[in-house]
Amino acid sequence: MDELKQKAIKSHHAKLVECMNPLLVMDHLANLLSLEQAELIRESHSARRERNRELIAVLFKIEEELEPFERFVEVLKKTDASHAIMAEAVLKTYKHRNCAAEFQKISTTSLSAAEEIEYNLQM
């Protein structure tokens, strides 16, 4: 999973670990998780919080091309009202951080001399 997406989830980690229903979320992510990953989450931890921690850790390891963040957020939106609230919070954090990162990229890119002259002439 992309680093900015991981950071968005980490920003809400405590709430996700506390409130998320891991088995319900896992059931909706069955086509994303391998059988081994699902079994690891389901059977190695009896406490809900531990299952949630493991589920998040597994999602972080999934390749970006499989869109683990997007699918996780969609599942949260669909499964439960409290999950939907968490999904919106995570998504809002991601969008905010992503915009900040894009702005930083743009602001650190300087104009060439020719671009600067053209820019000044347009003003």
From TrEMBL:
CDD domains: CARD. GO terms for cellular component: cytoplasm. InterPro entries: CARD, CARD_dom, DEATH-like_dom_sf. The keyword Nucleotidyltransferase does not apply. Gene3D superfamilies: Death Domain, Fas. The keyword Magnesium does not apply. Keywords: Immunity, Innate immunity, Isopeptide bond, Phosphoprotein, Ubl conjugation. It comes from the Eukaryota. It holds the Pfam family CARD_2. This is CARD domain-containing protein. It comes from Plectus sambesii.
